[in-house]
Amino acid sequence: MTRTKDEDRGLPPFSRLRLRDGLGEAIAGLVQRPGRSVLTMLGTVLGVGAFVAVLGLTSSATQQIGNAFTALTATTVTVQDRTPTDPSTTPVLSFPPDADERVQRLNGVAAAGVWWQLPLRSPSVGTRPAPPGESARARSVRLFAASPGALQAARPVVAAGTLYNQFHRGRAEQVCVLGAGAARLLGISRVDNQPVVFINSTPYSVVGIVSDVERLPDLLLGVMIPESTALRAYGPPRDSPARMLIGTDVGAARLIAHQAPLALRPDRPELLTAVPPPDPHGLRDEIDTSLSGLFLVLAGICLVIGAVGIANTTLVAVLERRGEIGLRRALGAGPRHIAAQFLTESTVLGTLGGLAGTAIGIGVVAVVALAQEWTAVINPYTVVVAPAVGSLTGLLAGLYPALRAARVEPLEALRT
Q1: pLDDT tens digits for 23-78?
Q2: Which of helix, strand or coil describes residue 210?
Q3: pLDDT digits 0-9 by tens, 361-390
Q4: What region holds the ABC3 transporter permease C-terminal domain (predicted)?
Q5: Cα dist. 89→85, 92, 111 in Å?
Q6: What is each CA distance from 400 to 25, 315, 343, 353, in whole angstroms?
Q7: Alpha carbons 135 and 95: distance in angstroms, whole number
Q8: 2 in the Ramachandran plot: left (φ > 0), alpha (ψ -120 to 50) or beta?
Q9: pLDDT digits (tens, 9 = 90+) for 138-190
Q10: What's the burial of 12, exposed, middle or buried (CB within 10 Å: 0-12/13-18/19+)?
């Protein structure tokens, strides 16, 4: 409290609490109880730290997802056969026999090939011929016709053996490649013992097992045979159209999507539809929004816990310091001065917790980015806003205790 000009002139005293004095009183009160102050700030530290870490990690992860999307999806083009697949009509394959070679001659194409699902209803698939009427494992194992170029465009990881090639395709050999899921369902884990898979009692020698693919994940649950073999044994696709998978160089996808139908069918390019990759920015924004919304809820819960901790501790401090409040009131402090003092203390607690939480959150983002070999991305506005969030949390948490302190009567407080 300071003497006012009215008091110096002999007029009735009018007490006033300056901002500097209020801050000094608040800091002194916190320093006198360091253990309690640290524990009180802990909730705000965790809340603001989670706030900064979540936004930073979300931005960093979104950047990495966007980069992966750009490197993979932005280099993938799909060409689909538009010929109607009506069971009542004779099926036709619009892709020419040399479709792979035609597209691979285009500048910017890394690999390309045609694939489709075999037109078999209730087939039997197993490691031995199935009795008539039995469809062993057909519900789980899918059957695909795929050219060697399609397998290359899928960018597979070969776990055992090798992929079939142009030799097998040219001779329409009865060979197959298994996806990891299909191999597991069929009980095949190696190819050096020359395993055989029977499709409707027709044997196909397993030449390789694929453990993973970067494109066409459906192949992991499938048995793949050369498309020339499929055409000879089962005919063109019926229930689902044939497609061509094209892997391009970065930046060439949209040009290839424009050129591929004409390169495949210069006589009737309208029979084929090329689908270029979508815009990666839209996907990146959707991922950012989804992840941020989910984790900000968790950060908000932490902030609410921190606010409750500050409110509870400040309220306890009001009850413990009733004598101090009564003495201040007796010396001329008004209710608003008492309320301002406790509000200042809670706000300072929130601000300190916000600063500490911001530093911890930035550290968490840096450590995680370093461990994952990411590029740490933190919005500067997040670093500026985070301490203010802590201050606002402390201010709101101190409202009720401050009002309780302002209502304390000096005479009753001095008696206790």
Answers
A1: 666 676 666 667 767 777 777 787 788 778 877 887 777 667 666 555 666 788 99
A2: strand
A3: 899 888 988 888 778 878 787 788 888 888
A4: 297-410
A5: 8, 9, 32
A6: 19, 8, 9, 20
A7: 31
A8: beta
A9: 457 899 999 999 999 999 999 999 999 999 999 999 999 999 999 999 999 99
A10: exposed
Please tell me the total number of residues recorded for the chain in this structure: 416
DSSP assignment letter at 223: E
Determine the Cα–Cα distance for residues 217 and 98; give it in Å rounded to an integer.
25
Residues β-bridged to residue 246: 77, 112
Query: Shortest CA distance to 177 belongs to which of 160, 199, 155, 193?
Result: 160
Gap between the Cα atoms of 26 and 145, Å rounded? 76
- The residues with which 198 forms a beta bridge, in sequence order, are 126, 203
Q: What's the CA gap between 168 and 172, in Å, rounded?
A: 6
State the Cα–Cα distance between residues 228 and 231, nearest whole angstrom: 5
pLDDT tens, 227-242? 999 999 998 888 788 9
Residue 303 · residue 51 · CB < 8 Å: yes
